[in-house]
Amino acid sequence: PFPGWDLPGVLTAGGMQALLKGSGVAAGSRVALGGTGPFLLPVAAGLAARGVEVVAVCEAAHPRAWLRHPGPLLSNPDKWAEGAGYAATLVRHRVPVRPRTAIVAAEGDERVTSVRIASLAPDGSPRPGTERRVEVDAVGVGWGFAPQLDLLVPLGASLTDSADGNAVVAVDRGQRTTVPGLYAAGETCGVGGAALAVNEGRLAAASVLADARATPVPANRRLTALRSAVNRQRSFARAMALAHPVPPAWSSWLTDETVVCRCEEVTAGAIRTARADGAPDHRQIKQLTRAGMGWCQGRMCGPAVHCLTARRRAYEPAERLVATPVTLGALADLDEDPQVSAAPPVPADSSETDKECP
Known about the structure:
alpha/beta, FAD/NAD(P)-binding domain, 33% helix, 5-stranded parallel sheet
């Protein structure tokens, strides 16, 4: 969250990309992007190729951070080649990329009309005297991704910390969780891209087959190569998280009036007050302020509330018995099961008339 993030016209970078790729709709004609991570680049490139004026890509980190992790970068040449392609598109369309910079506020009445951009100190706090106002009609922000653990937490799978500050499900070399018979792959093990998710799924499938047999399946070169690919791609995901962290001082951008939980309209000031009164984590904050009790059940505000209150780094979502909120009206509108509706009637003279119709 940041001041003005609840204005119409302020979207997540992923939402902006989904509009563009799924419906061919640009969210605006003059757009600013902000946050951290390589995902901002394809969004900016896609918008620019569509004819949108991307006034700035504000990257909170600095490319020099990758110099501390050269191994994963060099062992995944397809990743930096992909990034170079996006960079070439941005250069061709003259899109400015501003490192160590952030969108610290959005302004407007009925919808967003401008943003305030500031250069950041190493801890993420705005540098005095660097803030400037830029007119826009749409804003896209992205600060990384959070895995959806709603099905794994109630099943009792153990979690572990990841480099990006999220909790992820703990798995062994074969993608087995701590719950017997339960396997996990993809974003629940840490967000790292489609190729990594597919390879982890293949490892999980191999484990299912091995565990279903009376004798172990001997290792082969293909399985060894698959594990090597997973390790290589996972190391890149860790390096990316370390090179593009959420700035530790991001909360300094918030005023007490800034809405953090949009569903229940809970402000940063209310959360700070609850913390000062002794609330130790986001679960206690939820009980005291209702932050996270709305329609999204904390999916949007949970990590931010955690960062504003918790002492430990990794964010663990609360256990939810309902994985995805669905209204009773949506359930009522579902079509009847075609197999049930197509069941033939029981003849009146049948000897089966005393039995219940299936």
